[in-house]
Structure formats: C-alpha cells, structure tokens
C-alpha cells in the first residue's frame, strides 16, 4: 500500500487551508492530509507557518500508525511535505542537550529576574531562578529564557523573551520572542529535522507528586503565582490555546486548578477543556473563580503585581526564610566553639571548616563566620592581632 501523506497542498482562494495552531492559537496552521483516504490526520499533526514565533511542527509518527493503521511505517517509506527539500521524519520527541540550559544559568543577569528582585526582594531572585530554571540569552541584551523541561527532565526547547521595567514585554519595533532551537538550527548546531513539541513551562516540577497543580496562561504568571502560593506547582500552558489534552496527559492522577485570564471567553474556553480533561483523561480538575467579576483581559499575575498587600506578603515570606536559614546555621556552628578559648581569624575559620567538613571558601563557612561575628562572638584586641571569644 502506498501512503500519500503530506501537508495539505490543496488550495482554497489560492492558499492552503489554515487552522488554529494548537500551540500559539493563530490561524496559521496547515494540517497533514491523507490523499488516499481523503481526510485530515488528527489535529496534532501539522505545521505552524509562524516558524520563528511559534515553531510548532508535528509530522505523523509511529504512534499515529499504531492508532490509525495498525502497523509500523516501513523504513523505506517517506512522507511528502510541501518543502522543496526532503525531510527526515523523527518518530520520537526532539530534545536539546541540557548543557544549553546549564550554560544559560551561569550568568543570572536578565531583565526578568531584575524585575523579580526589584519588586519582591533579593532573596526571591535566586529562589525563582532555581525553581523554574530561568536562564539568560545573548540574543537580545537583557533577554531571558523560559526553558520547557518535561516531566522526564528532557529539554524540549527554550522560549526567549525580552522584558523591560515593570515586567512589560518589549513589543516594539517588533515582538521580542524567539526560540532556542530555531537559533541553533540557523547556526547549524541542530539538525533541520528537529521538531518542537511543547510541554508545560514548569513541567519539570511534577516530579513532586504531593502538591496541587495550578495552570495559568503565561510563564510570567506561573512564576508570580509560585511566589504568591508556593504550596502549589505552577505551570504555564503558554497561551489560552496551549492547554491541550496532549499536554495534559502528564497530569493524570493529579488534582488540578485552572486559572484562565480574567476574560469571559477565556474562562469559557478553559471550562470546556476542563470537562475534556475530566471525562477523557480522568483528571480531577476545577476552574478557579478567583476575581470572577473581572472581565478586562488581565490575569492573575497582573492582579498580584497591582496588589501591595500580596507583594508585602511575598517579601515577608522570603525575608523570614533568610532569617530561618541564618538562625539554623548559627545554631549548627555553636557546638564546635568554646567560651574559654580565644580564636584568631585563622583558627576560627579552621574550626568551622573542620566542624562542617567544608573548604574554607565554601558559602556555608563564610556565612557561618559572618553571622557568628555579628551575633555570638566578642572581639578582643590583643597586642598583635584581634581575637574572637564566644559570648
């Protein structure tokens, strides 16, 4: 049997028929078409022609043949596409080396984390980067990378975005959004057959199976939601149309709360998806009615940033966390010191190092000595040097 499967080439008003993209939601999506059966393949198989701003492309894979044809595609079969060059179809999900992610974390300077620190304090910055693995990109000065790492800790890609002051996205003279895999392909560092299949932003957190999952539309709002209520796992669907059943398969067995944007159409859309999640996937899901009276197109993130009480709550929680760490570090260091001994700076450091089993330049040792000098050590001036004595 010869399979005639390709991106739909039939023209309607001199152009292929376009559908709404399952990733970005724009009506720029061309689906794969089976010419022999004269029908479209399932909705997830297609390509968005917004290659730089979206990049979604899912060709038919082995799973499709199992479900629809009951057979594996022979090795010699090829799928015809509208591209002039033959493309190699990859049956598995394309992923990036985690080294790209690690490299982006080496330099934490980016505008988005600057905004986090400015609003919520310095302690929140490091915690946010660690929780969501937010990296830096040199593509634009000050740009950040929202990495999409799936539940298996595989890097799907990274969404590069540029923010200005007050979390305002830079959209002039053009919308500053790009993808890591697209840049790597242009540099020849990634095969052209790499196909992006997005997962939830923040999906890597699902390894913790004890918490309720909260889903919002944007990565920024997921981060702000976590700062507000860290007892939830916060995910971003990356757009109102990004909440798909395919993505939601990783949520089976979880309790999920959806937080759509403050817009009646978005609420209705996500309510309909919630029914599908419940009946088709068996997910325990609800749609939040938080701020249900608002219908202005803003979202939970905007509400948090516009509420001084919530901001102060976050600031206080992170301040308390630092105090908690400080108190515990001092308490852990105290047993190794004696009140009847005068310590020089060198002997004090050596004693703390031996006690903790750490090198002298470790952050734990440096902070322990700093906190002890401020709170529990008395300075005694000798003839030649300064000594420290436990109070």
The best one-word shape is elongated
Largest sheet: 5 strands, antiparallel
- Helix-residue proportion: 25-40%
Q: Rg from C-alpha positions?
A: 27 Å
- What count of structural domains? 4
Summing up helix and strand content along with how strands pair, one would put the structural category as alpha+beta
Could you walk me through the main structural features you see in this protein, from its secondary elements to its overall organization?
With 391 residues, the chain is of the alpha+beta class. The chain folds into 4 domains: 5-68, no CATH class; 93-199, no CATH class; 204-306, Dna Topoisomerase Vi A Subunit, Chain: A, domain 2, CATH 3.40.1360; 320-390, Arc Repressor Mutant, subunit A (Orthogonal Bundle), CATH 1.10.10. Helices cover 34% and strands 17% of the residues. It is built from 12 helices and 17 strands. It has helices at 62-68, 98-105, 111-120, 122-132, 180-186, 219-228, 245-248, 264-281, 300-305, 308-333, 345-356, 363-375, and strands at 5-7, 11-12, 15-16, 29-34, 39-40, 46-48, 57-58, 134-137, 143-149, 155-161, 177-179, 213-216, 233-236, 255-258, 284-287, 377-381, 386-390. Helix 6 (219-228) links the parallel strand 12 and strand 13. It starts with a strand and ends with a strand.
